[in-house]
Design a protein that fits this description.
Order of helices and strands: EHEEHHHEHEHEH
Structural class: alpha/beta
Strand content: 15-25%
Number of strands: 6
Number of helices: 7
Largest sheet: 6 strands, mixed
Distance between the termini: 48 Å
Helix content: 25-40%
């Protein structure tokens, strides 16, 4: 695995990669508007957006409904509907996501043998390379670039956490936001 990370907004992305990341940010903003953790994700196959997603954890009350998992489900459905091998398709998938995938999502993406991963900010609480380096265990061939518009991605997360997560257990509710 090749990792290129930066805290600045300037990393070497092609215009096409920047376009796809802009789309991922649109979905992160949609998630924020729906009171979800603002993570947006795009899966690209043969230069075409094949799957899009944002977190649906609060809406579904299912802790596994992360943006990446939603996109994985869409690709599997696409492959079934088009009689394609999902293993072969995933090997040509480029993932664009606004926040470093969590340990669960990183493991899923690496197990599926995706071609590349581009992310915005690091995930200091649950990151699949920051908190626990999943790649050291799974040894993927995935090319990884991180740090694109990291500040913007982090600001979306901060905006979400300023509010009160409607599905947080009472012991985790931000005390300063309660009446």
């Amino acid at each position: 695995m090749s990792m290129s990370t930066s805290n600045s907004s300037v990393i070497n992305l092609s215009e096409q990669e920047q376009f796809f990341m802009a789309k991922a940010f649109e979905f992160a903003k949609q998630a924020l508007a729906h009171k979800e953790v603002p993570v947006g994700c795009i899966f690209v196959y043969q230069n075409t957006i094949l799957a899009v997603g944002c977190n649906e954890v609060n809406e579904t009350k299912n802790a596994t409904r992360h943006a990446e998992i939603i996109c994985i489900d869409q690709v599997v459905t696409y492959c079934k509907n088009h009689n394609l091998s999902f293993k072969e398709v995933f090997q040509e998938i480029d993932v664009y996501v606004t926040v470093e995938p969590c340990i669960m999502c990183a493991a899923a993406l690496y197990q599926l043998d995706i071609r590349s991963l581009v992310f915005g900010c690091r995930n200091d609480r649950f990151g699949g390379s920051t908190v626990f380096d999943v790649s050291k265990v799974l040894k993927p061939q995935t090319q990884v670039k991180g740090g694109y518009k990291a500040d913007e991605a982090m600001e979306l997360l901060k905006e979400f956490y300023k509010g009160q997560n409607p599905n947080a257990p009472p012991s985790k509710v931000n005390a300063k936001n309660t009446c």
